[in-house]
Design goal:
Two copies of one chain form a homodimer.
Chain A: E1 5-8, E2 11-14, H1 18-25, E3 28-29, H2 32-42, H3 47-50, E4 54-58, H4 60-68, E5 74-78, H5 87-103, E6 107-111, H6 115-119, H7 125-141, E7 149-153, H8 158-169, H9 174-181, H10 189-199, H11 204-209, E8 215-220, H12 224-233, E9 243-247, H13 273-283, H14 292-298, H15 306-314, H16 318-330, H17 335-360, H18 364-367
Parallel strand pairs in A: 5-6, 5-8, 6-7, 8-9
Antiparallel strand pairs in A: 1-2, 3-4, 4-9
């Protein structure tokens, strides 16, 4: 049976069956008992948890066991710079910020500026350097606490990272890398080595503080192969396996799957209001009916309507969201009107984000690892 | 036909046919015309050149063309720390020092402290760190000019090196690495990546000075596969192919091939006089005859006598060496007496070296790259 979807760190396409991913990747779904356990510490649940957009995890119960014993964890997430930041990137970061605030923990934010250079023929290191700066502004704009957040840039912080990466690399054979990432004899040596660098932030704080500290990695599920390999290696170098919590992908505007910075019809954080409006009006896939009459009678389908799906990622208010859903299903709300609701929501969000982004420029130095 | 010898960066064994190596590796032999051309600049010829211990090269004529046009080169050599320094290591370094003095050029000396860690199961990073310090003392003891010599330590200088290494790594496929180094699916990711780090010092000075500078690498011929791969890559990243000059191996005391720090019967620079004497008396393979009578009559064979071979590497005086050779061949000099000549020579050399080594400790900081 041919698979209808693909999810690797470098390619996401097709109609993704997230339950099947949990089985294939060997992760655990986030059940209500776990949600309650989290809520005990955080007081409330982030809407991305309530809506099961963060749907899967590894070892989160172990992490909370340790936390309850007084063994605080740190957060690790990241961004491989290859384009401007788009809305899809923001999803795990917004959630990570919430975790940082609620658990009062450190965050190590990795910018593996070599990854996309190694995996994409046409991308130069000058490109990835420029986008590293741009992407940093978006991270800072989300309001991370500079006292508790450190940026790791692979090529800049290699004096700390390379020594740790080779400890990981010594424990991974090409055979394992082939099976995990689909490498062939034509893969370049840098791409083959790269996963070792992605493993480093999961234990670098433990090295620097000379004690084992639990790590939680919030990330989109496509990065799981890297951390699966890292988890196999960690006990061999006397470190904890990192725990992780996985989100679904913000779909592409027209094609579903995952929003991608290298494809068209993507909403970037630097897009102006008119551009955002045009992209949504023109490209957002609609779950509405073919005629106005039919739509009023049978209603739209929010499950396949991209504008509605985006609202589940960006509209925090459950009641507003529910009303929109019901109005759409009943036919009261037209596709065009639904698009306008999303446009208003996103443009309001981006206006504030872009203001924060401007101020972020001066703050970068506070986040850079000394 | 089975090959009677093996020469790879990680293994040297058997009776090495150096002329065949030149053909197999595709290097050029150093002929008399080239020796004269070198002498034109240096005034005299180092005994390691006169004796064709440095016997092979790549692009040395191109390097001298550039030099004569006023485009000065820099030197690059190195040591992968895994044990104390032995006499075999000193050979290319002594020659490199001569080149530095004669051409008044910079030397970049690499200590790839990750290499042997990655390639040897039992070696730890603590081991290689310790031997890096020890090996540095031996380099300094040879009298390199601290104003013109920079030490590069891979794990410490990775902030400079990793970014350059990935440019190289992007241009080498696993297929090429397999063919060049005999890697298999069971090779670890760090070992696979490593050759990219060894390529870096060949162009790092060009990056730092933002102009292309020719590079000459004096090294034992077993390292050639690394630089063959590097030479293929350099034009693709807009850098000169490094030139190189290759020496034969100082043979092991008893087994020939190449002196190895991980095998027994090896003379280390830290060995005391008694240890050196004992090792030579006990293990140095003799080209003498079975009985005193036969030796006096037929004479010894210097070509297979390890003590004599060692003198060709360490006795600078051609006349003394020739006399020893003739006396041995005629039967006038006995094997035991030949051993004593070598013992005296080496112990005198090592006594001075060890004095220099003690003073070197305080000088390390002058050589470390800031």
């Amino acid at each position: 049976m041919k698979k209808e979807f693909t999810v690797t760190p470098w390619e996401v396409k097709g109609n993704i069956d997230y339950n099947r991913l949990i089985k294939e990747f060997g992760t655990s779904s986030i059940d209500n008992a776990l949600l309650k356990r989290i809520e005990k510490h955080t007081g409330n649940l982030h809407y991305l948890l309530r809506r099961k957009i963060f749907f899967s995890h590894r070892d989160l119960n172990w992490l909370l066991d340790e936390y309850e014993k007084g063994n605080k964890f740190f957060l690790y997430t990241g961004r491989a710079p290859s384009s401007h930041t788009h809305l899809g990137h923001l999803v795990p970061w917004m959630f990570t910020k919430w975790l940082q605030d609620k658990f009062k923990v450190d965050l190590w934010f990795q910018f593996p500026d070599e990854e996309k250079f190694l995996f994409k023929d046409n991308l130069t290191l000058e490109d990835t350097e420029r986008f590293t700066q741009e992407n940093m502004l978006d991270v800072i704009a989300l309001g991370f606490n500079p006292k508790k957040t450190k940026f790791l840039v692979d090529t800049k912080n290699a004096d700390l990272m390379y020594k740790e990466a080779i400890k990981v690399a010594k424990k991974i054979t090409f055979s394992t890398a082939k099976a995990s990432f689909g490498f062939t004899d034509e893969t370049n040596l840098g791409s083959i080595f790269y996963t070792s660098m992605q493993a480093v932030p999961a234990f670098l704080p433990s090295i620097l503080k000379n004690k084992k500290i639990p790590c939680l990695i919030p990330h989109a599920i496509d990065q799981d192969p890297h951390f699966r390999v890292a988890r196999d290696v960690m006990p061999k170098i006397n470190q904890y396996k990192p725990a992780s919590i996985h989100c679904r992908f913000l779909p592409g505007l027209s094609e579903g799957g995952k929003m991608s910075g290298s494809e068209g019809h993507t909403i970037f954080t630097v897009d102006d209001q008119k551009t955002v409006s045009n992209k949504i009006r023109k490209y957002a896939f609609s779950g509405g009916r073919n005629t106005l009459e039919e739509h009023r009678k049978k209603g739209g389908n929010p499950d396949i309507d991209i504008s509605y799906q985006y609202l589940t990622f960006f509209e925090e208010d459950d009641k507003k969201l529910e009303k929109t859903c019901n109005d759409y299903k009943s036919g009261k709300l037209l596709s065009g009107e639904l698009k306008e609701i999303l446009i208003e929501k996103l443009n309001k969000f981006l206006k504030q984000h872009q203001k924060n982004r401007e101020k972020a420029e001066k703050q970068i130095s506070k986040f850079i690892l000394k």
